[in-house]
Amino acid sequence: MATTALQRDAERLALYTGLPYQSTHQIAGAIRRRAAVIPRPSPQQELLERWLLRRVAWPMYDPVRPWGITWVRPEADGLTVHFEGDYLAGELAGLLPPRFTADGLFYGIPGARFFPASKKGVEMILPGTSARIRLAGIGPKAWKAAWKKEQHEAAKEGDVLCHLGSPRSWTHRELLYVAGAGIGAVPRARRAEASAWLASALLRRVGLWSAAGIALSNTSWTNPENGGEQWIIEHIHQPTPDSLHHDELVGLLTDPEWGMRVKVTDRWCSCARQGEMCLVKLRSTQDEAGELELRFARRDTPRSVQAWGGELYAAKTLAAVIAPTRLRLRPESAS
């Protein structure tokens, strides 16, 4: 049982990020509350993290954990994202590097550049800024093979991979793309930047979703919203006796010290009527642009096994996290 502030911080950091307790104990011990344990990064770092979450938001393959992320390590000047394994190398190599198709369509993260893979992972940066994300959990051989295959496919399709011609700086076409008008005539860059704080704060607390029941499927997408973005997260899960209720997860997200600097603005709960979907909307407590809509869809065991298959369902069950009772929080709106 946690008896000291250090142990409680370590437990809480493990719950929010998915990091092993041994690692969070070292991190919390080094910080000793002299700074935020989950710090808010620079606007450029937030933007890069927003783009990463946007690109992995709808996985091509069904991962074991939400978005295929095992844990994250948030720092003031960077983020490490540990993915489930080498099987995701091909998906990430196809989703993240910026490219233009032969038809002029853009895919990937604008400006993203990648250093050669190492045992520590793949370093992704935004040229001209200090923003960086380390993609861990994928071996160098797997990444190199996926990278080579992606270049081969691009050449065959007539796609232009931006990093090949400009490995350390933005291309002119990328700059034109982000400056271009998106939906509602708001430049893409301005809309993404306005709500990047929201996506970054979500990604830095990705571990919470593994504690909200057996995570069967997590998908997310964005809609234009008053010059920013509305982020929608659909968490299809199977509740268990020890899992976080959605009100408890929202309580952790709205916690003044550890949460996302958000407040509940609307809530619709069907739990008492044995419904299959509950919904919560949140906005910034600091009047920042953007809205977060959380959809909690419940499934029972027979339907879960039938839909996801026995082997994958078993792996998802093992990946579910039990939150310590003393860390559970309830928002005022749930009372």
Largest sheet descriptor: 5 strands, mixed
Q: Shape from CA axes?
A: globular
Low-confidence stretches: 331-335
Helical amount: 25-40%
- Radius of gyration using CA atoms only: 20 Å
Strand tally is 13
Q: Label the structural class.
A: alpha+beta
Strand content: 15-25%
> What is the CA–CA distance across the termini?
27 Å
Order of strands in the sheet with the most strands? 1-2-7-6-5
Quickly count the helices.
12
Describe the structure.
Strand 6 and strand 7 (132-136) form a beta hairpin. The chain has twelve helices and 13 strands. The longest helix has 18 residues, at 140-157. By secondary structure, the protein is an alpha+beta fold. The strands form three sheets. Strands 1-2-7-6-5 form a five-stranded mixed β-sheet, covered by helices on one side. The chain is globular. The model is unreliable at 331-335 (pLDDT under 50).
SSE map:
Layout: H1 5-17, H2 21-31, H3 43-56, E1 69-75, E2 78-83, H4 89-95, E3 99-100, E4 106-107, E5 113-114, E6 122-125, E7 132-136, H5 140-157, E8 160-161, H6 162-165, H7 172-179, H8 188-194, H9 196-203, E9 214-225, E10 228-238, H10 246-253, E11 262-268, E12 277-284, E13 291-298, H11 301-308, H12 310-319
Parallel strand pairs: 2-7, 10-13
Antiparallel strand pairs: 1-2, 3-4, 3-8, 5-6, 6-7, 9-10, 11-12, 12-13
